[in-house]
Amino acid sequence: VPNAASKQIDFPVLVDELGDYLYNYAKRYFRDDALAEDLVQETFLAAVRTAEGFRGESSPKTWLVSILRHKIIDQIRSQARARSADLSQAETETEYKVFFGERDGYDDEWTIERSPMDWTANPQSVLEQKAFVGALQQCLSNLSERLRQIFLLREIEDCLIADIAAQLGMTETNVRVTLHRARVLLRDCIELSWLKAGST
Amino acid sequence: MISCKVASQLMSKAMDEKLSWRETIALKAHLAVCDLCRKFQKHLVVLRAGVKQILRPSSNDAGNKALPPDDRAAIEKLPDEAKNRIKQLIS
Fold first, then answer.
1. What are the C-alpha distances in Å from A191 to residues A2, A5, A65, A100?
2. Contacts for A15 with CB less than 8 Å, ≥ 6 apart
3. Chain A residues whose beta carbon lies within 8 Å of the beta carbon of residue B77
4. pLDDT average, residue stretch A84-109
5. What is the pLDDT of residues A34-84, one digit of tens each?
6. Which DSSP helix (H) or strand (E) runs through A107?
7. Which of A42, A112, A144, B78 is paired with B39 by a 20 to 30 Å CA distance?
8. Of residues B79 and B91, more confidently modeled
């Protein structure tokens, strides 16, 4: 017998109310529109199947997002299996040469062109700057899908390194390397488009 | 002394996990003399806060409430076709 909370759920209304939100949530992880649509569809199908377990302790939105998150992680995992998951060590090293090189007789220092610049003393004021927020959005979408997925699992879903590694079949070392690359690239991209764009 | 590259790897790691005491000491020694890496460290904190501000719905379900509407991440619509298809499948 459906409980009171599940009986009250009007799923077609939820599609109208939360469909866009869930679609955007999925789109952060996958560039493919059709794939994002499928994930939203599967989320609703799973929700209908398990509606009796929903006791109204959280909002329908929280509940649907938690279903979608599982679908997203499953999808990332199956993509990871399908392709050679990780960038080779050699490729990563080549990429790093832009950022780290010989300087003043020392190896692996920040290169002059890509040295971190002064942003501002006060982080909050940076976050209120439209140009910074715009650069961050653009630079996030510039990251390769793979880097962005793992970076967002960490930053938005608060997944632990060990969990990401276990879920995606990666080594923990590889997860750390991936997160470091994402941060180095993102930071650099923001600086290029936010601070350096006007000065050249 | 560790290099900036290794220091940046440790700073990234420290955003996710507790560093070993060995790593902590090596990083502290490097940061004491490296202005560029101190900047990098601050930037990592700003990046994390920025990503959360843009993408994470606030606890009151209001979405990107901290930002004026025109700064919000562009909202893409789930196409009506998809909405209708889903409604048919679940009804």
1. 54, 49, 33, 16
2. A44, B83, B86, B87, B90
3. 20, 23
4. 81
5. 999 999 999 999 999 988 878 778 889 999 999 999 999 999 988 877 665
6. strand A106-110
7. A144
8. B79
H helix runs in chain A, sequence order: 4-8, 11-27, 33-49, 60-82, 89-96, 123-127, 130-142, 145-155, 161-168, 172-190
Residue B69 or residue B10, greater confidence: B10
> A186 and B6: CB-CB below 8 Å?
no
CB distance A76 to A65 below 8 Å = no
Name which of A37, A136, A155 is nearest B78 (Cβ-Cβ).
Answer: A37
**pLDDT digit string (tens) for A153-165?**
999 999 999 999 9
Q: Over 80: is that where the pLDDT of B59 sits?
A: no
Residue keyed to tokens 């006791």: A55
Distance CA A146, CA A143 (A): 8
Residue-level pLDDT at B71: 43
What's this model's pTM, rounded to 2 decimal places? 0.85
- Residue A141's closest CA among B46, B73, B67? B73
Give the pair of three-digit tokens for residue A145.
Answer: 């899908």
Beta-ladder partners of A109: A101
Put simply, the chain B residues between 13 and 52 with a CB less than 8 A from any chain A CB are: 13, 15-17, 36-37, 39-40, 42-52
The nearest alpha carbon in chain B to A46 belongs to: B90
Closest CA to A19 of B82, B58, B90: B82
